[in-house]
Every structure is written in C-alpha cells, then in structure tokens.
Design brief:
There is one protein chain. 42% of the residues lie in helices and 22% in strands. The longest helix is centred in the middle third of the chain and has 19 residues, at 100-118. It is built from seven helices and ten strands. The chain has a three-stranded mixed beta sheet, with helices on one face. The protein is an alpha/beta fold. The model is unreliable at 187-194 and 207-212 (pLDDT under 50). α2 packs antiparallel against α4 and α3 (85-96) crosses α4. The protein is globular, with a radius of gyration of 19 Å. It has a single domain (7-206), classed as Aldehyde Dehydrogenase, Chain A, domain 1, CATH 3.40.605.10.
C-alpha cells in the first residue's frame, strides 16, 4: 500500500508562504472520493494582524501607482486568467465537486469582473461643476481607501474573490482574502502565481482560513 504525502496549504503574506503561529490544520477533501487531498493551515489573530500590516505596508506605495500602470497590470492579469481557464476549472472541480463545464463558467464569470477592472481608470475620474451657486464651485475626486478585505464562501471559490480583489486593487487599494477552509483553491487565489506574473507581487495577502 502506497501512502501519498499530502500538500500543506499555507498562508501567503507579504509575498511569502508561511505557516503562521498556529499549529491547527483542516483537511481539504476531494468530493469525488471523499478522501483528504490537502491540509490547510488555520490562522489565529496574530496571523491576521500580520496579513493586514503587510497589506498596509504595500498600500503606501501602491496608492501612488498611476491609473495607467494599474490598468496594465489588470490587462496582464486578465490575459493570464484567460490562458489558464481550463486549469483553474479543473482545480475548482477537484476541490468543490462541480462538473468541469460549471467550474469553467465560474472562472469566466470572475474573468468578466477583471475585464471591467481593466477600464476602471475611466470610472475613477472626478467631477467638477462651475458656479453651482454664486461664487461656489463643486468638485469631487476619488482616492484609495487603504486595506480592503474579503471573506468568501465555499460554493464559488474563484468567482466571488474575483468579484472583489480586481476592483479593490485597480482602485489603488490592497486586499486581504480569507477564503473558505473547505475550498481553498490555493493555486487560483489572487495572491498566487497568476497575480505575481501579472506584475503585482506584494499588494495582497491571504491569511486564513481562521477557525476558533
């Protein structure tokens, strides 16, 4: 009988994988077999704090990156997602149990939000109104908020995170993702290889899942 060594899915903080300070793990099951295919490291409050601090440190530089450069990164990310749609769908199918066609549809729905984020520079323009009242002008402009966070469910492990992080990052924010410990989909989390290859290395962090 051959025993396979299961992979361990760690936190990803500040561009680095880390086990964090907690020793507890949770199994990630293959729905097709009912067998555990990986172990995900759970987070404690200290791990979450480190993720937020890393995202905050990245924000200091990222908020000043031009809209043009942010758009280029989103375009590069979109091309990488499109290139790996089938691979991402197979991972979703493996961890979630969806049939391949359904999983692929999920990835494509997420890709559509990335495509929307590619044009976010146009939507981030401010407004100016001259003489709204006597000697009074009115104007507005949009600024990044800082560190954003997403807590996503198990049933759409790719689509729901991709509803969140492309918009947040294109708008000049940084992002911390807490995925479900049941469907981690490590290789398609926005802080992984696809995001790195697109050009943004440390703008996001993943800490979690956290279970008390």
């Amino acid at each position: 009988m051959t025993t396979l060594t299961q992979k361990t899915i760690q936190h990803h903080i500040g561009g680095q994988d880390t086990r964090g300070s907690w020793t507890r793990t949770s199994p990630v099951f293959d729905p097709a077999t009912g067998h555990s295919q990986a172990q995900v490291v759970l987070a404690d409050a200290g791990d979450v704090d480190r993720a937020v601090k890393a995202a905050r440190a990245a924000f200091e530089d990222w908020q000043d990156v031009s809209l043009t450069r942010r758009a280029r990164i989103m375009f590069a990310f979109r091309e990488l997602v499109a290139e790996h749609v089938d691979e991402l769908a197979r991972i979703v199918s493996s961890e979630h149990g969806k049939v391949f066609s359904d999983a692929k549809g999920e990835v494509i729905r997420g890709q559509e939000v990335v495509e929307y984020a590619c044009g976010l520079a146009q939507l981030l323009k401010g407004e100016y109104s001259d003489q709204v009242s006597t000697d009074v002008d009115a104007y507005s402009f949009r600024q990044p908020l800082g560190v954003c966070a997403g807590i996503t469910p198990f049933n759409f492990p790719v689509m729901v995170p991709m509803w969140m992080h492309p918009i947040a990052i294109a708008a000049g924010n940084t992002f911390v993702l807490k995925p479900s410990e049941r469907r981690v989909v490590r290789r398609v989390n926005p802080d992984r290889e696809v995001r790195v290859r697109a050009g943004q290395r440390h703008g996001q962090a993943r800490a979690g899942p956290r279970r008390c």
